[in-house]
Amino acid sequence: MRRKAQRADGGDAPDVRTGHAGGRPARPRCVLLLEDEPRPAALSRALVGEVLAEHYGARRHGAAPGGVGPADEVALLVCELVANAVRHGGGPVEIVLEPGTDRLRIEVADRTALLAPVERPHRPDLPGGHGLRIVAEVADRWGTVPRGAGKAVWIEIDAARLSGPGTAPRPGSVGPDLA
Questions:
Q1: What's the pLDDT score for residue 178?
Q2: Regarding beta strands 103-110 and 30-33, do their DSSP bridges make them parallel or antiparallel, or are they unpaired?
Q3: pLDDT of the residue at 69
Q4: In b/e form, how buried is each residue of 40-72, taking b as 16+ CB within 10 angstroms?
Q5: pLDDT at 5
Q6: Is residue 40 part of a domain?
Q7: Is residue 4 part of a domain?
Q8: Could you give the CA distance from residue 81 to residue 41 in angstroms, rounded to a whole number?
């Protein structure tokens, strides 16, 4: 039986594996509505974990001895995008994952066209202002696209990073899960 995401209003959300309510076959696209969800980052992390495991065989390692793997890095990126949507974008609207043979694309849509501020000059010794710097450093590509009255911030991760020999934990990579 396929696990379905549940919308806040109780209706069926798209099946996290196919992107369609009822689990009908489709191209690999997953959409999860995040409006009014009390824990959008946790839901997004769970969806990312399922997609990474199913499409790339990548599993999250968390703070296990030996470091973190690419799946942990993707979870960190998603948390940063969702946190920015909550703090600067009027709340997240949805997360879209498009796994492909060459790359994984993830979009987090919010309610404002404004991009989260990047602190200048960068002060690594102070909290805040690091999210988009982390995104730029860890993602293979990233950017924004207009989406209705708001925008979507997207990232792309090359599939070779997710399904190749580097799927084992890498000591010294981005860091443990920030749940």
A1: 33
A2: unpaired
A3: 82
A4: bbebbbbbbbbbbeebbebbbbeeeeebbbbbb
A5: 42
A6: yes
A7: no
A8: 9
Q: Kindly list the distances between the CA atom of residue 44 and the CA atoms of 31, 117, 127, 137, 161, in Å, as whole numbers in the listed order.
A: 10, 22, 23, 21, 20
Residue 62 forms part of a structural domain:
yes
Cβ distance 71 to 83 under 8 Å? no
Question: Which pair of structure tokens corresponds to residue 82?
Answer: 């969702």
**Segment 139-148 mean pLDDT:** 94
110 has which bridge partners? 92
What distance lies between CA 124 and its chain's CA centroid?
A: 23
Instruction: Give the global pTM.
Output: 0.73
Instruction: Summarize the confidence of residues 19-33 as an average pLDDT.
Output: 59
In a domain, 177, yes or no: no
Are 97 and 47 contacting, i.e. CB atoms less than 8 angstroms apart? yes
Structural domain range at position 35: 28-167
CATH number at residue 67: 3.30.565.10
User: How far is Cα 84 from Cα 175, in angstroms, rounded to an integer?
Assistant: 19
Report pLDDT digits (tens) over 132-142. Answer: 888 999 999 99
Q: In the chain, how many domains are there?
A: 1
